[in-house]
Recover the amino acids of this structure.
């Protein structure tokens, strides 16, 4: 665990098991309790792929598909016993598919692991690619900062949960020449009354991961800096210049270059300090990305 102090600019090397040593009186760790679901499906003949982005109903999905030419309006696809018909092609190329029955997720669903892992999912990923506090099913990708926790470490920390169902847009690079022109993906979130009360009583909120950060800052932005019980969808894009309203510290993994995630942590800690931290992590051979090491930003 790389520890970055924003006030002093110091960077130190610790173990994740040392995390409880950094807890101050009045701290509250806020974690994303979303659970990754098998959202990737292959047609029976194996030539087509469907990635379920959002179940509009149990038998009607918003999807990404490959190859697009085989998913024109009216085209059908068979997965197990279910037959799906392409109803709509959205402006961004996504499809709306109506199924004649529910697709058997247990039999045919696969986890959509990040592309940089360079492999398909394996049976062990069904649990390994989940946090120990995963509960609310609905994410395509794991909130990876939470993967470090064990029940024993969690028990030592004052904590509360929010839910944000991580979407595939998490991995999409920023290609716009001007950052503000990047079209951010939208994700469903929920903050319960119990969590809102706990945050209101905390002296400092520590966001575990960028998804918890985005949830908290969305709600605080909508409520004059306060975190209240609320649910909805968010497409908040946090980049340098953003004024943080809810979060005082964060735990995060090391992110892909040109990603919205590295821009978020740069907004939180300052671009120069984050670049220096990444140089240090590379020099010390830290592991990056989903199954990698982490950084605590104080």
């Amino acid at each position: 665990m790389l520890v970055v102090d924003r006030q002093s600019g110091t960077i130190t090397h610790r173990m994740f098991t040392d995390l409880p040593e950094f807890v101050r009186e009045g701290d509250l760790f806020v974690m994303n309790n979303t659970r990754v679901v098998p959202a990737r499906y292959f047609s029976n003949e194996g030539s087509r792929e469907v990635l379920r982005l959002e179940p509009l109903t149990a038998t009607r999905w918003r999807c990404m598909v490959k190859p697009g030419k085989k998913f024109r309006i009216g085209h059908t696809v068979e997965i197990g016993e279910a037959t799906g018909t392409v109803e709509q092609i959205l402006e961004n190329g996504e499809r709306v598919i109506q199924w004649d029955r529910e697709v058997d997720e247990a039999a045919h669903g696969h986890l959509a692991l990040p592309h940089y892992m360079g492999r398909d999912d394996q049976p062990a990923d069904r649990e390994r690619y989940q946090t120990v506090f995963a509960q609310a099913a609905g994410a395509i990708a794991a909130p990876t900062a939470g993967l470090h926790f064990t029940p024993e470490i969690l028990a030592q920390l004052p904590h509360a949960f929010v839910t944000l169902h991580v979407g595939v847009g998490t991995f999409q690079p920023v290609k716009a020449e001007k950052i503000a022109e990047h079209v951010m993906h939208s994700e469903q979130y929920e903050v319960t009354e119990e969590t809102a009360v706990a945050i209101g009583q905390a002296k400092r909120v520590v966001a575990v991961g960028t998804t918890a950060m985005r949830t908290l800052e969305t709600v605080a932005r909508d409520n004059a800096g306060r975190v209240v019980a609320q649910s909805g969808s968010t497409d908040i894009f946090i980049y340098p210049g953003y004024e943080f309203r809810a979060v005082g510290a964060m735990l995060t993994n090391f992110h892909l270059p040109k990603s919205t995630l590295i821009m978020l942590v740069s907004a939180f800690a300052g671009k120069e300090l984050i670049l220096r931290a990444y140089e240090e992590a590379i020099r010390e051979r830290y592991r990056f990305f989903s199954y990698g090491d982490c950084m605590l930003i104080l």
Q: What stands out?
A: The first strand starts at residue 2 and ends at 4. The chain has two domains: 2-36+114-297, 40-108. The chain has seven helices and 17 strands.
